[in-house]
Structures are given as C-alpha cells and as structure tokens.
Design brief:
Helix 2 (36-56) packs across helix 4, helix 4 runs parallel beside helix 5 (104-111) and helix 6 (145-157) crosses helix 7. This protein folds into 2 domains: 1-119, Glycoside hydrolase/deacetylase (TIM Barrel); 122-195, no CATH class. Strands 3-4-5 form a 3-stranded parallel beta sheet. A two-stranded parallel sheet has the order 1-2. Strand 1 (15-17), helix 2 (36-56) and strand 2 (61-64) form a beta-alpha-beta unit. It is mainly α. The chain has helices at residues 2-11, 36-56, 68-73, 78-91, 104-111, 145-157, 172-185; strands spanning 15-17, 61-64, 97-99, 116-121, 162-164.
C-alpha cells in the first residue's frame, strides 16, 4: 500500500479504499456471511489503515469502492449494504461510495446522505438484469479494445460516472490507453469524479 500510494502521488492519481471481506486466500472473491456490525468494523478498519498510509505519502483517501464478492453482495444483500453504508456514515459521510447503479447500496447511500457514484465496467460483461456476469462464466471478460469502447460509450450515455478497467485484465495498460483515446475521439472527456 505504501508503494502504491507513493506512485499515486508521483502520477497525480486519486486514491480510493478498495474494501473487502477478510478473505486473503480467496482474494475477496468469495461471499462471506458476516455479522453486519463486524462488517462495518472491517470496512472502517480498512479505510483507516489506508488513510494513515496515504497521509504518510502526502495524500488522502477520496472514495470507497468495495471489492469482488462484497461489491456484488451489496447489489442485493440489504444487511451487508447497510453495514458498508454505516461504515461510511460513521466515518463522517464525506467519502463517496462507488457501486452498481440500481443496487440496494445506492438506495441506502442516498437515503443516508452518502454520495453514490454509479460505476460501469468497460472490461466485464453484464447480465440482462444489469449485474456483472460471474468471472468464471464464458464471455465474462471483455478484452477487445473496440468492444470495450462500445460498452464504455453505452455506459457513459446511460449516466455512469465512473468507468472501471481492471488492472489484472490482460494488457490492461494498453487497453486503458486505447479506451481513453476512443472516448476522447467521441468528445467524452475523462476526469476524476472527485478532487
């Protein structure tokens, strides 16, 4: 985290807390049924740890985005969405929450005074219901730059405020550059959703 924060400062990148279940072995990609109060504490702990490291690097945490299975759970799991939103409320309410539009988390954040940032995925396929296709399913990952750009345009035109391209997508750096160029050629400027 220290090295990442230092690189973010060096390159002018905004830092977000990518909070997760306590699931190191599964990289946070396995759902965990967890007591809501414990989940709230875990989220607060992770934000706080990153805040200290970011401050030491001369920057700050600007938003929160749940990772993996937690991100997907708070789309429909009310108790866990409440726990994440409660963590942000207890933190002071100043950090925006990134998530899937139409989710339980979006509704709870908006009724709790927490800014919700609707996020879309340029490199992931969606179900007909607007959820992400599970990673293990065929076609879940989009790696063609043209298909990615087409999806990103559609998402932006439907009100998405933040686009995600996973760093572990094969050739992610090249794809990010191609995606940025394609969007800017269409007059869609890319800029941070927070300052």
């Amino acid at each position: 985290m220290s090295a990442t924060c230092a690189l973010a400062v060096q390159h002018g990148v905004i830092i977000g807390a990518h909070v997760s279940y306590p699931d190191l072995a599964g990289f946070g990609r396995r759902f965990i049924e967890i007591e809501p109060g414990e989940l709230t504490a875990i989220v607060l702990y992770q934000i706080g740890a990153l805040e200290a490291i970011a401050a030491a690097a001369g920057t700050r945490v600007s938003y929160v985005k749940p990772h993996g299975a937690l991100y997907n759970a708070i789309v429909h799991h009310t108790a866990q969405a409440e726990a994440v939103v409660e963590a942000l409320r207890l933190h002071g309410g100043g950090l925006p929450l990134l998530g899937l539009p139409g989710s339980v988390a979006q509704h709870l954040a908006s009724t709790s005074g927490i800014r919700f940032v609707a996020e879309g995925f340029a490199d992931r396929a969606y179900t007909d219901e607007g959820h992400l296709v599970p990673r293990g399913d065929p076609g879940a990952l989009i790696t063609d730059p043209d298909a990615m750009a087409t999806q990103a345009r559609r998402l932006v035109h439907h009100g998405i405020e933040s686009l995600c391209l996973h760093g572990d997508t094969p050739d992610a750096a090249h794809l990010a550059g191609a995606l940025s160029a394609a969007l800017e050629a269409d007059g869609i400027s890319l800029e941070p959703f927070v300052r």
